[in-house]
Amino acid sequence: MSMSRRTVIAGAAAAGLTAATAGTARAASGRPARELFGRLADGTKVYRWSLANGGTRLRVLSYGGVVQSLEIPDRRGHYANVALGFDAIEDYVASSPYFGALIGRYGNRIGKGQFTLDGKSYQLSVNDGVNSLHGGAQGFDKRVWDVEGFTSGSDVGLHLYYISVDGEMGYPGTLRAKVTYTLTRHGDWRIDYEATTDKATVVNLTSHVYWNLGGEGSGTIENHELTIAASRYTPTDSGLIPTGELAKVAGTPFDFRGAKSIGRDIRAAHPQQVQAKGYDHNWALDKGITAGPEHVATLRDPDSGRTLRIATDQPGLQFYSGNFLDGTLTGTGGRTYRQGDALCLETQHFPDSPNHANFPSTVLRPGRTYRTSTLHSFGA
Ligand code: BGC
To answer: Cis link prior to 105 (omega < 30° from 0)?
Structure first.
């Protein structure tokens, strides 16, 4: 009997997660377990939750709802953590480029941090040059969420709650957010987002996992093959704010309609790529907004055989090729992360939607519930 199975029977460190994360022992399911991860400077406790189901193992922090690690097997059954992260809460607070975090109240950028809603102008917290990025200086990624573990039928998961008060980071209305992370018996990771408000506001929640299907710290993702079911993307200005145009991907490096290695065109002399230092754009998904999650992207690492399939009901997908990783951060495996060592695939509404009447609306009004779901399916 393997060490991890003994641990499950002993009921400790729940869900078959032990310090040793390598090996081929299949992750057993069980009730999510919580341990103290660290404390913020003001003494607030940050917990780490461990859960496993269907062969997938997940570690989640109450700080930012951060996915600290996500372990899946390769084609030979060898596990690796495929999400970039840190070992210590201090690193998340001091220098995380949103590793694994929940993003809100508005994912990606709002130009100059300004928008007008029902005739009223709002000024948001500006934290990316002149623009507001990922909810401003203290976005949902830097908040401590209330977390509850659950099991339901064959599912294992976490409910995460955060209340963003009226005026926080400049946004109108008190927003009550609930995010559910579910690991299914197939080992899929599903995210269900919900929010309500007491004043009209804008909302665009997403998850900012940095994927490397070869394992975090294993080097570049340029060999990964990516497919995105989108014929158009939203070009940006030099501050990465969409110009409002929906440009065709055909005949450009942005065409991922058929599986293509990320490295193939990443150094193309296309002005949009030169400006963004790689890919950092929103793809307008062909399916548009849908009632339930539909498949929109596949990522595959030919070396390990690991695959990630993403399904969403959202209209957009931000593909960010880890352009700003610069070798100054050391991850959970003790190695530094350099440019292109991971990529993000953020299901979302289009960036800067509040300032573009031709983009799908991100307005949430009192009495309505914001609901969106994204499903990550893994294979090898
Ligand atoms: C953005 C990048 C940004 C990164 C933060 C991504 O979602 O598109 O421009 O640098 O988040 O690390």
So the answer is: yes
